[in-house]
Amino acid sequence: EIVLTQSPGTLSLSPGERATLSCRASQSVSLNYLAWYQQKPGQAPRLLIYDASSRATGIPDRFRGSGSGTDFTLTISRLEPEDFAVYYCHQYGNSPGTFGQGTKVEIK
Amino acid sequence: QEQLMQSGAEVKKPGASVKVSCKASGYTFTGYYIHWVRQAPGQGLENMGWINPHSGDTKIVQRFQGRVIMTRDTSTSTAYMELSRLTSDDTAVYYCGRSPIAAAEIDPWGQGTLVTVSS
After folding, report:
1. pLDDT digits (tens, 9 = 90+) for A84-102
2. B110 shares contact with chain A (CB less than 8 Å)
3. What is the mean pLDDT of residues B32-53?
4. Is the sign of the CA dihedral B46, A56, B113, B33 positive or negative?
């Protein structure tokens, strides 16, 4: 199965700053079938990005997904207070689907 | 709106089984796959597998094969995940989620069901 490695483990930033999260796959993700989710404490994950770069319904355009093959990036252009959370990548192009271990974006 | 509502928290003893339900509303239940994903306390997300509510076909991730059964009741638009031979390592929040096909993003997710395994 594909192993997804997210970096960094924790990102300490201030509101208004840019966040860059990485997700690296152990082998190429078929059809770039990769999603990003946001999870806040006590809540279920929320879909942000699918197919590597498509924003889900209602997701602000400050969230941008990019990448292909084995290297993917989630960029949050200007952090809002509600963006501080844990972010997971998920590949669903190769069975079984797998998740990264998460990146926590915390307030500096 | 499309929604998945899960059953309440459970406390089980080691060796027992637990059955978690996931009731769909706001969409055609048989038109979408249901995935099950768990999250141990303070840990990341772990894929368990999926069920196709239309056919009843399932795909269980290898490490859970022999311990997980996924079923559905189309008359009530409810999917079920039963996990047997519980150990303390199975203590986690169990989520269901929807996808349009097997290989797709998961959206939306249920609210989660906490299963605690303790003697």
Report:
1. 999 999 999 999 999 999 9
2. yes
3. 98
4. negative
